[in-house]
């Protein structure tokens, strides 16, 4: 692996690829720093630009967006008191009060340093555990892979904030979308007499349509309902480097703990940066000698938040690369990028494309360094850019989505696919259906069907799924995750009823 | 009278859609001796799962009753007016998709951007017009140049 890593490092260090990583990091930071834009949206917008690139260049650009995006939320969090991404919510708790005291440079510097260390630790986790899990999963046969995909989908559906039924429904709808067009036996399905549906739906316009439209229209509705305006913000920031070094020296344990929490949470399907963010902030507070300072502008709070959300980037790559199962939405899109370039993520990737795996490691490392440099040198500009109003952003992103979908195959039909799935995504969002399980279903649908029927062709008994230990374990975990989610749903509903009753009593 | 809540609308709409798809699945080539499971089995499993989940959502919604309204009920025209920005943007995007092959990238995209920025920013001041035209006239050729010359992708 070391040879491949050196070869990959050579490829990634070429001026062209380095420039792409810089562009990716810059765009990621900008995307992450604009409230309501999110890392996922930044990745979706950049995705089409990778079509014409070789896999290493395309993947490096995307990794750059990841690294920049996960660290970008700090800018608006500290300067505006609005988290740029959901994964930087707890950054606001301490970053904003610190900025209000006139120490915005210190808050940003601490956050950027913690992000950098978090990314590095998560890369170490990825380098160590990725090949280990991949070599273990090499023993997986179709039964185990089928059961694992079912487990991943139920887990993600179950984590949909008290909406298990809708989460499962979304996952099943995502899988159903992949059945349109010619199947593995060259039989046509659900074409409704339209020749354009024969080749099925491309993943990209479906994903963009479902996610981007609902997100952008949701932002517009929020704008309409809240009518809150960001008032004059001082974007003159100077970074006190010595003070930050001193601050970070006192945060070694907190940084390590938060980074490991981020890496671990990132590796679990359906969790992502937001969950990591809250867990590590909570843990940092519990372990702190001065828990009462949390929320008032303490460096510990910023470190816990930023180290964990940036560590998610490396951690999330573990299941995607080692098992071919993306853990969250950005990773599902990343998997789409790899599939588009003819690479199937999974255990075989470590054998068949070791250079590309090495390129991902190298891009993460180089991206982290570039992220620190960009954040420290250009933070004033990012703060200004984060003030771009949604009214300008939404049409521009919609236009980029349309052109990106067209550029995939130079096919205008894909823009209609984008539009139709945009309407569907918006309606589902209005009906409070979680969209992450749906997108995961779209990404995993073809593989699930292929593996299921390969298993049945090898052994026609469905009971084999229960007699093979690992397959049975994954299915048992899937059932357990559904039962646990049902329990959680009931608890949430009970609490809601209790709150309603106490409100009525108070009235 | 039965109130049409979000959950009930979702469940009923999905039940209708899967019924249509179930009928359409009858057109899929049936199993053969070398394809014993056929191509319709997997989608039919999914249709059954979606149907069951929709029924569960419908049943749960009917059993728990319609949630109490926090806002007064809007008439259809009021509802349309309340959501006019979002609906207009969808309509503009649909128009853009339709006009793209007719007018070509530059003209259609310029029209879409100016139209949608005008819709969201407003057109009641010179400053807004300036921002609108500056964003549209900069981005359209820039994106064209990146795709055409940087990525070798021909835009329509």
Describe the secondary-structure layout.
The complex is a heterodimer of chains A (507) and B (156).
Chain A: H1 2-12, H2 15-33, H3 38-46, H4 55-79, H5 89-100, H6 104-137, H7 142-158, H8 164-177, E1 181-182, E2 188-189, H9 203-226, H10 241-249, H11 252-267, H12 273-287, H13 299-323, H14 329-340, H15 349-352, H16 354-385, H17 390-409, H18 413-430, H19 436-458, H20 464-467, H21 469-506
Antiparallel strand pairs in A: 1-2
Chain B: H1 6-25, H2 41-64, H3 76-82, H4 84-103, H5 105-121, H6 126-150
Quick structural overview:
The complex is a heterodimer of chains A (507) and B (156). With 507 residues, chain A is an all-alpha fold.
Share in helix of chain A = over 70%
Largest sheet of chain A: 2 strands, antiparallel
Oligomeric status: heterodimer
Q: What's the total count of β strands of chain A?
A: 2
Q: Which class do the helix and strand fractions of chain B yield?
A: mainly alpha
Q: Give the DSSP E fraction of chain B (strand runs of 2 or more residues).
A: under 5%
Number of helices of chain A: 21
Instruction: Give the largest interface pair and sizes.
Output: A-B, 57 and 58 residues
Strand line-up in the sheet with most strands of chain A: 1-2
Domain module count of chain B: 2
- Strands of chain B, total number: 0
* Radius of gyration of chain A, in angstroms, nearest whole number: 23 Å
**Integer-rounded radius of gyration of chain B:** 24 Å
Structural class of chain A: mainly alpha
The dominant shape of chain A is globular
């Amino acid at each position: 692996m070391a040879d491949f890593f050196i070869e990959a490092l050579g490829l990634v260090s070429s001026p062209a690829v380095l420039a792409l990583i810089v562009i990716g990091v810059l765009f990621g930071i900008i995307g992450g720093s604009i409230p309501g834009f999110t890392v996922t949206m930044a990745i979706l917008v950049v995705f089409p630009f990778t079509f014409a690139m070789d896999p290493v260049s395309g993947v490096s650009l995307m990794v750059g967006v990841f690294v920049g995006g996960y660290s970008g939320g700090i800018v608006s969090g500290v300067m505006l008191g609005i988290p740029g991404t959901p994964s930087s919510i707890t950054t606001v708790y301490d970053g904003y009060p610190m900025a209000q005291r006139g120490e915005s440079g210190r808050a940003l510097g601490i956050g950027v340093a913690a992000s950098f260390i978090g990314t590095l630790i998560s890369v170490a986790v990825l380098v160590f555990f990725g090949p280990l899990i991949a070599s273990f999963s090499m023993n997986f046969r179709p039964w185990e892979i089928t059961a694992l995909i079912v487990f991943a989908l139920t887990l993600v559906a179950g984590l949909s904030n008290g909406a298990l039924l809708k989460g499962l429904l979304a996952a099943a709808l995502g899988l159903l979308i992949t059945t349109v067009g010619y199947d593995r036996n060259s039989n046509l399905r659900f074409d409704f007499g339209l020749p354009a549906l024969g080749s099925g739906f491309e993943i990209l316009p479906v994903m963009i349509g479902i996610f981007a439209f609902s997100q952008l229209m949701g932002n517009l509705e929020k704008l309409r309902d809240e009518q809150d305006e960001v008032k004059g913000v001082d974007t003159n920031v100077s970074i006190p480097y010595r003070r930050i070094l001193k601050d970070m020296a006192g945060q070694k344990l907190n940084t390590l703990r938060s980074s490991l929490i981020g890496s671990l949470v990132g590796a679990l399907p359906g969790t992502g940066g937001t969950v990591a963010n809250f867990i590590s902030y909570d843990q940092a507070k519990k372990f702190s000698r001065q828990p009462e300072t949390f929320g008032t502008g303490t460096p510990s709070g910023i470190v816990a938040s930023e180290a964990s959300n940036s560590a998610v980037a490396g951690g999330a790559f573990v299941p995607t690369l080692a098992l071919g199962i993306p853990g969250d939405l950005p990773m599902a899109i990343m998997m789409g990028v790899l599939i588009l370039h003819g690479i199937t993520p999974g255990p075989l990737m470590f054998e068949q494309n070791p250079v590309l795996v090495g390129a991902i490691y190298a891009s993460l490392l180089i991206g982290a360094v570039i992220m620190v440099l960009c954040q420290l040198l250009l933070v004033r500009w990012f703060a200004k850019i984060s003030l771009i109003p949604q009214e300008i952003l939404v049409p521009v992103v919609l236009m980029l989505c349309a052109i990106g979908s067209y550029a995939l195959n130079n096919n205008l039909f894909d823009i209609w696919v984008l539009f139709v799935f945009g309407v569907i995504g918006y309606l589902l969002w209005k009906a409070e259906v979680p969209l992450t399980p749906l997108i995961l279903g779209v990404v995993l649908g073809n593989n699930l069907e292929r593996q299921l029927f390969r298993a049945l062709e090898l052994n026609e008994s469905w009971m084999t799924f229960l007699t093979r230990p690992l397959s049975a374990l994954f299915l048992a975990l899937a059932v357990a995750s559904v039962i646990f989610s049902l329990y959680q749903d009931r608890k949430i509903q009970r609490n809601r009823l209790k709150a309603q009753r106490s409100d009525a009593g108070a009235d | 009278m039965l109130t049409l809540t979000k959950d009930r609308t979702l469940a009923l709409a999905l039940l209708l859609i899967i019924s249509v798809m179930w009928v359409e699945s009858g057109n899929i080539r049936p199993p053969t001796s070398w394809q014993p499971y056929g191509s319709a089995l997997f989608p039919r499993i999914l249709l059954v799962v979606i149907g069951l989940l929709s029924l569960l959502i419908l049943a749960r919604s009917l059993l728990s009753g319609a949630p109490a309204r926090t806002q007064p009920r809007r008439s259809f025209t009021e509802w349309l007016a309340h959501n006019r920005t979002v609906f207009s943007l969808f309509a503009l995007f649909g128009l853009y998709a339709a006009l793209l092959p007719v007018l070509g990238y530059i003209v259609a995209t310029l029209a879409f951007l100016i139209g949608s920025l005008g819709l969201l920013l407003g057109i009641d001041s010179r400053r807004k017009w300036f921002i609108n035209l500056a964003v549209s006239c900069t981005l359209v050729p820039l994106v064209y140049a990146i795709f055409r010359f940087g990525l070798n992708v021909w835009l329509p």
